[in-house]
Amino acid sequence: MINKFIRILMFFVSFCGLIVVVISFYIINHLDSSEQWIAIVFRIIGFLIIIFSAFSIIKLNKRIKLYDQKQKNLIEHAKNEKDEPGHVVDLWKYKESEWTNFLRNEKRRKIKELTIIGLMIVALGVPLLIFARDASILSAFVVSSILALIYGIVSYSINLKRYSNNESELFQILFFKDSLLINNRLQILKDDKINLENVEIVSSNNSEQLHFIIFWYNSKNNKITDDIFIPVPSTYHENAVRMVAFYKEQLSG
């Protein structure tokens, strides 16, 4: 989901690069010969943006294909588990009411989390824009609020997409060594980019959840973390304890 969103963003960036190139061709005829270097610089920047976006899209397409293929393979392994045991570490099935209640609590948790993050973006963004860009208080507040809103909408949508069900009346989670299938949606726990940092049982709203923490590094080598919550009905408490032990062993190994 994140890769597909970034691909859309790269298409937009590429379109912006194309606009810069078009503008450079337009303004070069309206500049003196001594100033035409400005249009040339614009043109070079535009072409560099387009090239960077194109390479990024190609790379993301390859990753998305690998992701989709892995999801199909895991679904096929799950269907053939009786014939080929060992692929699935555990399988949890939920009642619709259990999953609906979990989603309701997860929405509340995410909204609370994103509200705090949004306020922090505004609180830090306003003085930064005022001092760094000499912006007015109103314009700094508007820009920071828009950025906070965009971040919130994207993060909220990605999080909900993770827990939505691909098939009607399907509410189940399959645990694999390095991934999860949440209602037939693949969630990577470990691959060449993503790493599992921790897993534990936590309590929230008078219920238990498995809490996975995964992380990866962006292009600037900054560490990015993500939280995955799995509802634990009382009937699966012992299973949850075994899952924590299993994935802890993977971490130590």
In brief:
The chain is built from 5 helices and 7 strands; from the N terminus they run ααβααββββββα. The chain is an alpha+beta fold and 253 residues long.
Descriptive overview:
The two termini are 29 Å apart. The protein contains 5 helices and 7 strands; from the N terminus they run ααβααββββββα. A hairpin with a 3-residue loop joins strand 2 (172-175) and strand 3 (179-182). It is an alpha+beta fold and 253 residues long. The chain is elongated, with a radius of gyration of 23 Å. Helix 1 runs antiparallel to helix 2 and helix 3 (96-133) runs antiparallel to helix 4 (137-163). It has 2 domains: 2-79; 90-252, no CATH class. Helices cover 60% and strands 19% of the residues. The chain has a 4-stranded antiparallel β-sheet with strand order 1-2-3-4, with helices on one face.
Give the arrangement of secondary structure elements:
Layout: H1 2-27, H2 36-79, E1 90-93, H3 96-133, H4 137-163, E2 172-175, E3 179-182, E4 185-188, E5 195-204, E6 207-217, E7 223-232, H5 237-252
Antiparallel strand pairs: 1-2, 2-3, 3-4, 5-6, 6-7
Helix pairs in contact: 1-2, 3-4
Keywords:
4-stranded antiparallel sheet, 7 strands, elongated, 253 residues, 3-stranded antiparallel sheet, 2 domains, alpha+beta
Structural class by secondary-structure content: alpha+beta
- Count of the domains: 2
Order of helices and strands: HHEHHEEEEEEH
Low-confidence stretches: 81-85
Q: What share of residues is helical?
A: 55-70%
Q: What's the pLDDT, averaged over the residues? A: 81
Query: What general form does the structure show?
Result: elongated
Radius of gyration: 23 Å
* Largest sheet: spatial strand order: 1-2-3-4
| End-to-end separation | 29 Å
* Oligomeric state of the chains present here: single chain
**Can you count the beta strands?**
7
In DSSP terms (H or I, runs of 4 or more residues), the helix count works out at 5
What summary fits the major beta sheet?
Answer: 4 strands, antiparallel
Strand fraction: 15-25%
